[in-house]
Every structure is written in C-alpha cells, then in structure tokens.
Design goal:
This protein is mainly α. The chain starts with 24 loop residues before the first helix and ends in a 7-residue tail after the last helix. 24% of the residues lie in helices and 0% in strands. The chain is globular, with a radius of gyration of 9 Å. It has one domain.
C-alpha cells in the first residue's frame, strides 16, 4: 500500500467517517492515518 493521498482528500473524512463512526480500518486503527489526523486536529490542512 502506498500513501499517495492525504486523509483530507477523501470526501468521507470527518463528514461521514469520524472516530465515532468509522467507515474503514484507517479510521478504526490507533495507527491508521485517518484516525491520527482526526484525533490530532490535522483536518485544519483541508
């Protein structure tokens, strides 16, 4: 797997897919990129 996109490139990120309502393993996993961005406020780079 190659990370070519940022989580903010996903239309679901912090809309339908949040730490409380994850849509995939990247948000569920403590090591998942989306979950890390969501928990640490990186969504400001959107």
């Amino acid at each position: 797997m190659v990370g070519k996109l940022k989580p903010t490139d996903c239309p679901l990120f912090m809309e339908d897919c949040t730490p409380q309502t994850p849509k995939g393993p990247c948000m569920v996993s403590i090591e998942g990129t989306c979950g890390i961005w969501a928990r640490h406020g990186v969504r400001l780079y959107r």
